[in-house]
Structure formats: structure tokens, C-alpha cells
Amino acid sequence: MSFRDRSNFDMKVPLTWTAGVAVIIAAVIGVALLLGDRRETLQVQAYGVTKNVVDTLSAPVSSTLATPGRWTGNVFDLVRDYFLAGAQNHGLREEINDLHAWQDKAIALQNENQRLRAVLGLKTDPPIPMVTAHVIADSRGPFADSRLANVGRELGVTVGNPVMSDRGLIGRVIGVGHDVSRILLLTDIASRTPVVIDRTNARAILSGDGGPNPKLAYMRGQEPVKVGDRVLTSGDGGVFPRGLPVGVAVQGLDGAWRVRLDADSSPIDFVRILLFTDFSQIAEQKDAMTSALPPLSTADAAEVAGKVKAMSAPPTAASPKAGPAATADAQATAKTLANALAASKAKPAPKQPPQPSPATTPPPDDDTP
Amino acid sequence: MSLMQSTRPLDPWRWLGLPALVCVAGTFLFAVPIKVFGLQLPEPVLPMILAFAWAVIRPSVIAPFLLVLLGLFLDLFWGGPLGLWGVSLLVSYTVVLASRSIMTGQSRPMRQVWFASATALTMLTGFLITSVVSLAVPNLLSVFWQFLATTVLYPFAHRLIERFEDADVRFR
Q1: pTM (2 d.p.)
Q2: Which structural domain range is residue B123 located in?
Q3: What DSSP assignment string belongs to A26-47?
Q4: Among A15, A217, A272, A369, which one is least packed by beta carbons within 10 Å?
């Protein structure tokens, strides 16, 4: 008698119960995945290896599918343009009339801007290098808005790089593979972008909610924004450079201030990825690497330490000093400190050990008296 | 002979594997970045068809795991938080599975209402999970559009149910 033929082992668990247990186990797996995900942090580590692998694998498939899609899209555009040619012509004429006025204004402003920059001795920001990419997949649901672009680490793209269409900002890179990158759009519910209202210089945070028009949150001041105000990146926090065009302020049906994105008005096939990481990239690297820390000899250091100790000591009953006397003493101490530092600056700098890195180097002390 | 065929258990590949692959292919297709007359393509949740149809056809051990896998694919491909679609699909699958005896013998329009309700439940779960995970309320209009784009896919679920509902007489 075989093992399976025994009557005691002929019992079968009903499939409904087994299926119920399978559902529970699957649910536990799903919840565990949800709890283990750290997408909201949008850090380099949070975009895990699995996501990168899936992006890399889906890139060729999406790219192949997108090619005929682009041709079809062009055909649709041609048909639409053919039928709407009259209305477009009328609209373009009006736009040209408006643009002539703007052109005159822009020339005058450019001239004034150049003169003011010359007077103030301001340096313009150096251009930020960028790479052009093709969008090969596009997710646009209420819970995730992202795009897959066909350039990656091979062309220097890194996590955090801002991404623009030909009209305005569309988002930033959150995941990079060898030749593919995932772009988090401004409309994604996890997207938060520091922006500024161009007219009033009021700061706000552009918060995506899965809809086409992200919200302007955390605005301060009285009437900081009006319908039609230009919205630009503020550069706060160093994620984006300042002044990238984002869109135009509009008021939603719910009364909240929202932004009609500039990028919506352009096709979505090509994007430009700015290879911007932070402001140290824009600053003069040569200056940043130079340490202007004044050297301090041992004798000066001892003198300064003594003075500081004397200043920090509490007044005793034997030598009570208060009011004008204490102020005069403090002034004298400050004068001595200033002299000590000036003398130490005048001395030739002794050889110093190499600095560990520019990031740990203290800033230049130009305000020293 | 025909009786023997009808009592033969369903081949999982035919009613689980192949439809799952078709859903993955369809998801790739709908992610193509084109605009038709200035409008973007809709983004339906194709595995919702399976979450409903599989639960109506018969209880299964493989189906819930396959749904989690499909949900995982959606999360990774669309760039959402991991587990969002897996859990959302599983919630509606469980509810439909528990109430499949009520649905037996219902007319097509009535089943369509059931499908819409199951889709609404999935979207509601996704809405709640996203609200908690992202600490922000998703745009209700966008949720509604995705719900609508998914609900109109009922004919595919109906075809799958009609094809396999009577394939295994033990679960009629």
C-alpha cells in the first residue's frame, strides 16, 4: 500500500479555503512591499536596484513601441493642423502683434539690464550643460506621473538633475540606469518644487497632486499672486537653478492657486536634462578650492586664547566692573584681538598640511576687522 | 468524451498566464508617449479586468500571487510606490471572490455594475494608500478619469468570464 493510497491521507483541503489562505499570504506580501518602499524620500538609495533593472529592461520595449506611436502622432497632428489652419492663422497673427510689443520691451529691458550689470559688476551665471533625450514611456495616472527617457549614466545624468521641455520645467530625474532615466514630473503627487512668483518675488512650494495643474502651497504675504503671474524656480534648497520657467498662475475651481505648466503646451517627445547638481557647480570652482584662511602662529593663538578666557570669566567682587568701565574694557580687548589678527595676516604663511576637501574648508574670513 | 473534457481541471496557463501577459503588453502600449489631437492617451488599469474575472471564474491559489506580481509590474513601470497596485487589486479581488455566489446568474448589465464597483474599490484603496504614503490628497478628477478609463474595459472581463466560467464544472 503506497503512502497516497492510505485512507487517512485521502482528505483534501477545499480549494476555496486554500484560495483564501493564498489571498492572505499575497496580501501580506503586498503590504510588506508597501511598507518597505521608500519612494517618498526620493533619495538615490530609495530608487532601488529592482526599479533600475525594470527601467533598463522596459526601455527597449517602450522605445520600439514609441517609434510607430510618434509617426502616428505626427499624422494626427498633420490632420489637425490641416483642419484648424484658418483658426491657427488668425491666432498666430494676433500673437505676432502681441509679440512685436514684447520684443520692443525686451530690447529696452535687455539694454537696461546690461548697463545695470555693468554698474554693479555682476557676473552672469555660466550656462549649465545639458543633454537631449527622447521620452519612450509616459505614465500619467493619479498616483504616479513619470516619464522614461533614453539617456542615462553614460551621458552624465545623475539623480536630481532638472528636466525641461522646449518650453519649461517638467520635473527632475529620480532614477538613472546605464542608458535610461526615470523623470518625476511636477504633477506627480510626491513632487515638491520651490518656486517664486516673478512679479512679487513671493516664494511658494509647487505641490503635485496627480492632476494636470499642480498647487501653489505655503504662500505668504497679502495677495502674493494674481492670475497670469509668471512662476519660476526659486533655486531655494539648491535642487533647481533659479529662474527656470515653470508656468502661469491660475485659480482652480476649488479656489486654490495652481500653475498651468508651460511644458503642457509643447510636444512630449523630447526633453532636455540639465546636468545641474548644486550651486557649487555654478560658483567659480577655482575660488571654492582656494583656502583664504589666515594663518595663526602659536604665540598669537595663546594671546587670543588668554584674552577670550579673560572676557568669559565672571566678574568677581575684588574687581567689579560694570557699565561704561566694562564697555571700555571690551573695546580694548577687541582692539587687541584685531591687532593680533592683522599682524598674523601680515606674516608669511607657514606651510600648512593639505586640506581634506573643499567642503571641510572654512569660508574666507574677509570680514575680519 | 465531452464530459471528460469538461471535468478536466483548467489549464492555468490558458486562463491565468496568457491574460496576464496580454495585460502587460497592453500596459506597455498605453504608455506610448503620443498625443492624439492634443490629448494624451488614457491610462486604464488593465489588470483590473483580471482581478474581477479571475475571482468570478473560480477560486484559485495562483491568481492572488499573480495579481500581486502584476501590481508590482505596474508600480515599477509607472514609477509608483511598491505594493500600491498589488494591494489595491487584491482588495477588490477578495471582495469579488467572497461575493461570487451572489453574482452567479446575474445579467450582463448587472455584472458591469459589479465591475464598476470593484474598480471604484480599487481606486479608493489606491487613493487612501497614496494619501498616507505621500501625505497629500490625490486629484479627484484624475482618479475619476482613470476609473472611467478602466470601467469601459468591462467587455474584456466579460469575454474572459464567458470563456472560462463553465470550463470547470466543479465551480459552477
Answers
A1: 0.71
A2: 2-171
A3: HHHHHHHHHHH--GGG--TTTS
A4: A369
